[in-house]
Design a protein that fits this description.
0% strand, Transposase, mainly alpha
Length: 87
């Protein structure tokens, strides 16, 4: 999906004014036709649409225990030191 607003607007303008065809836009900008459909349907790129957090049926019951282990390590400075051997 295109995130550059200038390119988004340029593609919309050129296709909607008839300067280039939809097929030519796909070839010229190297985009999929479904992406072009989204560009033509929206004036600006749609924002990130986050989804609900996935369920964690296997790990879920152990998350509090893992959190109890990790938080003291982060406070002690072991977070980014490889295996935590060097504070």
């Amino acid at each position: 999906m295109l995130k550059n607003m200038e390119i988004w607007v340029e593609i919309r303008r050129r296709v909607l004014t008839g300067e280039i065809s939809k097929r030519q836009a796909c070839v010229e900008y190297e985009i999929h036709w479904q992406t072009l459909k989204k560009i033509l349907a929206h004036e600006e790129p749609p924002g990130f649409q986050g989804k609900a957090a996935r369920a964690k049926p296997e790990l879920g019951p152990f998350l509090p225990i893992i959190h109890q282990i990790l938080v003291p390590d982060q406070v002690a400075g072991f977070a980014n030191s490889g295996w935590g051997l060097h504070p």
